[in-house]
Every structure is written in C-alpha cells, then in structure tokens.
Amino acid sequence: MSWIKDRPCPIERLTWLRERIKFDAIIDIGSGDVTGESTYFLDAVFPDLPHYNYDKDPKFSDHSNIVELGEDLHLDDILSNTLFNNAFYKIDVDGPEIAILNGSTNVLLNTGAIMIECVLDDGKFLNICNWMRENDWALMDVIEPIYRRSMMLIQVDLVFVKASIFKSVEQSCYIESPDFPTEHNLK
Q1: Cα(57)–Cα(52) distance, rounded to whole angstroms?
Q2: pLDDT given at position 64
Q3: pLDDT digit string, tens, across residues 127-139
Q4: For 46-97, how does the pLDDT look when each residue is reduced to its tens digit (9 = 90+)?
Q5: DSSP code of 40?
Q6: Within-domain flag for 74
Q7: What pLDDT does residue 186 have?
Q8: Residue 38 is part of which domain span?
Q9: How many other CB atoms sit within 10 Å of the CB of residue 112?
Q10: Contact partners, residue 135, CB within 8 Å, separation at least 6
Q11: CA-based end-to-end distance of the chain
Q12: Is 1 part of any domain?
C-alpha cells in the first residue's frame, strides 16, 4: 500500500472536491486576509464562479459585495432573496462560527460543502464538529494547518459536506482507489 508522503495543498484538496461536487457560487464569510481579498485558494480553484464576500469589519467596506454581518443580521436574512443551487461556503470569522451557522440554516440547505476556519482553543473544534454532525454534515477534510513557531498546531480549515454527499463521495473513492480492495474494484 502506498501512502501520500507530502501533504496536499489546499488548492489540490479543493480541486479534488470540486471534481466531485458541482458548485455555482462562492460565499466567503469573513474576508480571507487583512486586505479584504478572497482566500487565495478559493480564487485559484473557483476562478469561473461568482464570489460573494461578507464581513462586518468596516475596513473591508471598499471590497465588492461585502455587507455587514452582526449579531442580529444573519446569512438567512441577507441571502433570503438569492437562491444558489449549490454554493460553497467559507466561514472565517474568528470566534462566532456557531452564531453564523445558527443564522444560516436556510441558506445551508442549498449547499453541499462548507469550509470553516477553526482556531484550536476553548473547545471550538469540538463545538463546530458537533454542530455540523447534529445538522447532518460530515467532516471531509482538514486543510491549511497553521503552526506556531514552537510547531504547535493552532488553526486548521475544516471542510464539511452534507452527510449524504459524504457517503456518495466515500463510496466512489473506494471504487477509484487501487489501495483499498473492495468488492467493487476487485472485478
């Protein structure tokens, strides 16, 4: 059995996901960096799709498509008149991830994948994973690990897909993979 020796980069992982799930837009909640630009790998993997950025930080106000998100304004409110068949969501809000998810239950019905930046402190990882599991999402991938100088892992991007999609993708991966003999790929 051969194992991957080098970890794949976010572009490779999201390209792999895009080959399996058809998306029609990118919803970027919280700008990708201090410039207000989208996350570089979202632009690289989805250059042909419309990108919508939402951030509550006023320093990003000159960036296109940004509106303010606050405690009383949720994505369900903002996107209620916009229907995407299957948008890819990236949530990078440095703290209120669960509040954003709670305020997005209707719009999340129209997506197959969500990427959530998760700082590994105060139980955030478990809280996010539990919320997603309780709402029929499955963890598909962990990408973009960030380490302190001490080499302590402090942050990752978690890629979730709907549980039904996970089962379908998982089955197709076993069929495609020569590493794992199954009744499907032994024929």
Answers
A1: 15
A2: 37
A3: 999 999 999 999 9
A4: 999 988 777 655 554 344 344 455 555 567 776 665 667 888 988 887 777 8
A5: H
A6: yes
A7: 45
A8: 10-176
A9: 24
A10: 101, 105, 108
A11: 19
A12: no
- Measured CA to CA in angstroms, residue 114 lies from 101, 127, 148, 150, 151 at distances of 10, 15, 25, 30, 27
Asked whether 165 and 21 are in contact (CB, 8 A), the reply is yes
Does 76 reside within a domain?
A: yes
Amino acid at 45: V
* Rounded Cα–Cα distance for residues 122 and 126 (Å): 9
Q: DSSP assignment, residue 50? A: -
Nearest to 169 by CA among 19, 20, 35: 20
Q: In this predicted structure, what is the pLDDT of residue 122?
A: 82
Q: Which two tokens stand for residue 43?
A: 């632009």
- What confidence score (pLDDT) does residue 49 get? 92
How does DSSP classify residue 121? S
The CATH number that applies at residue 138 is 3.40.50.150
| Signed CA dihedral, 58, 62, 117, 128: sign only | positive
Number of domains in the chain: 1
